[in-house]
Automatic annotation (TrEMBL):
It comes from the Eukaryota. PANTHER family: CYTOSOLIC 5'-NUCLEOTIDASE 1 FAMILY MEMBER (PTHR31367), CYTOSOLIC 5'-NUCLEOTIDASE 1B (PTHR31367:SF0). InterPro entries: 5-nucleotidase. It comes from Picathartes gymnocephalus (White-necked rockfowl). Transmembrane segments: none annotated. Pfam families: 5-nucleotidase. This is 5NT1B nucleotidase. GO terms for cellular component: cytosol. GO terms for molecular function: 5'-nucleotidase activity; magnesium ion binding; nucleotide binding. GO terms for biological process: adenosine metabolic process; nucleotide metabolic process.
């Protein structure tokens, strides 16, 4: 699809594939040895990385869209966005072709940061294993997250893209989280009830949820709601009774639907995520990311909002 019509997802090579061993060679022996190793092993297929099954699920959605709307270009376009050198490209191409992935656009920046290219590629979502680059992208106003590999292998559905979002500082701004951190839970509950009818400001991943919603409506228009290949989840530490109404009313005011809303009232998110088995779970707090990873969920850290300040100072 033409970039202006597509929902562009930029994925780094270390998010798409498992390059832990190669990264170690680079860090211990330098760039020349790294490039030499990659060229000597260019016919050795790379193993899947944390974003691999997410990308596979995006491609399944594309296939279904093409069946229903053969002439419509509003679908996902995956771009490999990496600071790898071009000499490594053959191994990446061989691995992509081996798995039957449709990734036609590469951006290989030869050691320079690829962040400046994200805007040029009209990127809707950027996924990387490099937290510094993700932070840079978030500061540039691009929806971004750092990918983490799960500590256990879990089987993922190939026929339905499942995306789980935390609420505050992910879909919504960190306005309410600031009150929790600075004034405590009682003040937070009071604030949320007083402002129940005032929509929350948008957070960094609101646009991507909106993109998913647009595609879902294409399936609904063809009477495919019950067979939709996209399902979205809100997995929040908020309590439904004391602070849930504002969240749901905010989504309604934006004209957005969420398929499932799970209000956990502070309970761990990991067990719920194991049940959902999302291809990706976005959260702004690393202790939720770690809890998800321990139980086998693929998690992506969104470095946005006041939680990052507390993380750096504790």
């Amino acid at each position: 699809p033409k970039p202006q019509n597509a929902i562009t997802v930029a994925v780094s090579s270390r998010a798409l594939f498992n390059l832990v061993e190669e990264r170690q060679i680079y860090e211990e022996h330098g760039l020349e040895k790294y490039v030499e190793y990659q060229q000597n092993n260019e016919n050795v297929i790379l193993k899947p990385g944390p974003a691999f099954y997410f990308v596979k699920a995006l491609e399944h959605v594309n296939a279904r869209l093409l069946e229903l709307y053969p002439d419509d270009e509003e679908r996902f376009d995956v771009v490999l966005m990496t600071n790898n050198h071009a000499q490594v490209g053959v191994r990446l191409i061989n691995s992509i072709n081996h798995y039957g992935l449709t990734i036609e656009r590469f951006c290989m920046t030869g050691g320079e940061s690829p962040i400046g290219y994200l805007t040029a590629y009209l990127t809707n979502l950027y996924l990387s294993a490099d937290s510094d680059k993700v932070q840079e992208a978030i500061e540039a106003g691009i929806a971004s997250a750092t990918m983490f590999t799960a500590n256990k292998d879990v089987a993922y559905l190939d026929t339905q893209l499942r995306v789980a979002f935390d609420g505050d500082a992910v879909i919504f701004s960190d306005e309410s989280e600031q009150i929790v951190k600075e004034q405590g839970l009682d003040r937070f509950f009071e604030h949320e009830q007083l402002n129940e009818n005032k929509p929350l400001a948008q957070g960094p991943l609101k646009g991507f949820l909106e993109d998913l919603g647009k595609l879902q409506k294409k399936f609904y228009a063809k009477n495919e709601r019950l067979n939709c290949p996209i399902r979205t989840y809100l997995v929040t530490a908020r309590s439904a009774a004391s602070s849930g109404a504002r969240v749901l009313k905010t989504l309604r005011s934006w004209g957005l639907e969420i398929d499932e809303a799970l209000f956990l009232a502070g309970a761990p998110k990991g067990p719920i995520l194991v049940k959902i088995r999302p291809h990706i779970f976005f959260d702004d707090q690393m202790f939720h990311i770690e809890g998800a990873r321990q139980l086998g969920a693929i998690a992506a850290h969104v470095p946005y909002g006041i939680a990052q300040k507390y993380r750096k100072t504790t």
